[in-house]
Specification:
The chain is an alpha/beta fold. The chain is built from 13 helices and 25 strands. The strands form seven sheets. Strands 2, 3, 9, 10, 11, 12 and 21 form a seven-stranded mixed beta sheet that branches. Strands 22-20-14-24-25 form a five-stranded mixed beta sheet, covered by helices on one side. The two termini are 29 Å apart. The model has no long low-confidence stretch (mean pLDDT 93).
Length: 535
């Protein structure tokens, strides 16, 4: 059971805008800055404007910026990582428009690592050449800084922080007409309100908090995906959740957000080993420790299960103190704070939920199946990632497709629709279900899956849906969103009876040509409809 809308007080205030953008990561900020060409922009974000998942991105931005590289080579590597399910048209858009979008970001003020007067290119997992630009090990923070500064300098953009989006407002003909949201007492508005807008752009980020351990920040509770699902939008590829192989296994941690140990450390020569120092990836894949993330995460998870341990190690001692301090100062400091010195000791690591390759299905201009509703960034399924995201393609995707949405809005902004009364059933899942939900998803719908584990997870989710009683507040809205997202992931993973990319079925360990297609989902009433579309 998925609620048709969230139980919440009636809106106590109303704002109007031409375009409302939800989210302040690289996708949302880029969309807001470029949507000014279409009219008045309202940017709403769940916490502070610079507290998005982008901020935590240590890895870089992949783009064919070097004369030794080409968009065609980048396209090839992306298609390989996507395991047969990428939309080649979307990937072509990404790799051909990407270099210019990165140059524009530099013109905006983002500062990346340089070498001999040129951008310093590094290599990450799945890439056959060095094409990733970094700002040391804090690329996301630097990108966020540049974009946030630009937003603050843009009087055409109204910003509302501490705003949790609730539900989509729709006109009588089904078009998007705005949204409802709850603001936590900041600025001139407070409590539940409504925004009437000619276009709604979802750039609300990921859903990693659906699992017990994730690299995502606490705000990543799948709010945008859940909103779109309740509104009747089509989702695609929700079974493909990428687990980053090397999240820092903080001693004494009980889960939640785990610090990321960037893949660039393996690009420089770091290796994954077990407690005895045996290299984990030897003989597993031609790219060894730089194999695609799904291969590394699954290999690690199987070994951990066999050895009865909850973590392995990343050995970067061979890189030397000078390189570690120069290239990875943030990681070095974070590890030392926890009592681990990577210069002299291996770093404890374990896979953690990192990135959702699926989401709200869009076309090449970010349009969803609901007129007037657009999506970009991690909340969207553009077709770029297929079954598995190629390292450092996500920031680039946010740049490219947010810009395309803005172009579309500038050329054809929908007329303002009048929101129709919404008498659909409203409900909430009780806050007490959250920990049980995350535990069930990790155990049954995490890195390794099977029919039995997924069935157990589905039953747990069904039982948790019966927990009611929460009063409308941030925690209960987030729990209800997480439940909707978990239900969609589990249903999609159950349908796909094969192993491909970020989806691993122990009972169907090989890819099958019959599954070259996409699992799509939408809600009809309170029933989740899950179907398979062949390519």
């Amino acid at each position: 059971m998925i609620p048709q809308r969230l139980a919440a007080p009636e809106p106590g205030w109303t704002l109007t805008a031409d375009v409302v953008v939800v989210g302040s990561g690289i996708a949302g900020l880029t969309a807001a800055l470029n949507a000014r060409r279409a009219g008045r922009v309202l940017l709403v974000t769940k916490a502070y404007v610079d507290h998005s998942a982008t901020r935590w991105a240590q890895g870089g931005i992949a783009a064919a910026l070097s004369p030794l590289d080409s968009p065609q080579a980048h396209l090839h590597d992306t298609l390989v990582a996507g395991a047969g399910l990428c939309d080649p048209r979307a990937v072509e858009v990404l790799v051909t428009e990407g270099p210019q979008r990165v140059r524009e970001l530099i013109e905006l003020g983002a500062r990346f690592d340089m070498r001999d007067g040129e951008l310093a290119m590094t290599r990450e997992g799945g890439h056959l050449t060095s094409r990733v630009v970094h700002a040391k090990d804090a690329t996301g923070a630097e990108v966020e800084r540049a974009l946030v500064d630009a937003v603050h300098d843009a009087p055409e953009i109204q910003l509302i922080e501490h705003a949790l989006v609730l539900d989509l407002l729709r006109a009588g003909d089904g078009r998007a007409a705005g949204l409802t949201l709850h603001v936590l007492g900041e600025g001139t508005v407070d409590g539940v309100g409504a925004v009437h807008a000619r276009a709604v752009v979802l750039a609300s980020g990921g859903l990693g908090q659906v699992y017990s351990s994730t690299t995502n920040p606490s705000v990543s509770t799948g709010d945008g995906v859940a909103l779109a699902l309740r509104a009747g939008a089509v989702l695609s590829d929700m079974e493909f959740v990428q687990f980053h192989p090397t999240a820092f296994h903080v001693p004494g941690s009980l889960g939640g957000q785990q610090p990321l140990i960037t893949e660039a450390m393996r690009g420089e020569g770091g290796v994954i080993v077990d407690a005895n120092g045996v290299r984990v990836m030897d003989g597993v894949h031609p790219l060894g420790d730089l194999a695609p993330r799904d291969v590394v995460a699954k290999t690690m998870s199987r070994l951990m299960a066999r050895q009865g341990v909850d973590h392995l190690y990343l050995d970067v001692r061979g890189l030397g103190a000078d390189l570690l301090l120069t290239h990875f100062p943030t990681i070095l400091a974070r590890c030392r704070e926890a009592g681990i010195d990577p210069v002299v000791a291996p770093i404890p690591v374990a896979p953690a939920a990192h990135y959702a390759s699926g989401g709200v299905r869009t076309d090449l201009d970010g349009r969803t199946s609901i007129p007037g509703l657009y999506a970009c960034g991690e909340v969207a399924c553009t077709g770029v990632h297929g079954a598995n995201r190629l390292a450092s393609n996500s920031l680039l995707e946010g740049l490219v497709f947010a810009h395309r949405i803005a172009d579309s809005l500038a050329n054809d902004l929908p007329p303002q629709a009048v929101p129709a009364p919404d008498d659909r059933c409203a409900d909430l899942v009780d806050v007490s279900a959250r920990l049980d939900l995350a535990r069930a998803m990790t155990e049954g719908a995490g890195v390794l899956r099977s029919a039995d584990s997924l069935a157990h997870t589905a039953k747990t989710l069904h039982d948790l849906a019966g927990r009611h009683g929460s009063v409308p507040r941030t925690e209960s809205w987030e729990t209800t969103n997480l439940h909707a997202v978990a239900t969609a992931i589990t249903a999609a993973a159950t349908v796909r009876e094969e192993t491909r990319g970020g989806h691993w079925r122990e009972d169907f360990p090989e890819p099958r040509d019959a599954w070259l297609g996409h699992v799509t989902q939408r809600v009809d009433g309170d029933r989740l409809l899950t179907t398979f579309e062949e390519m």
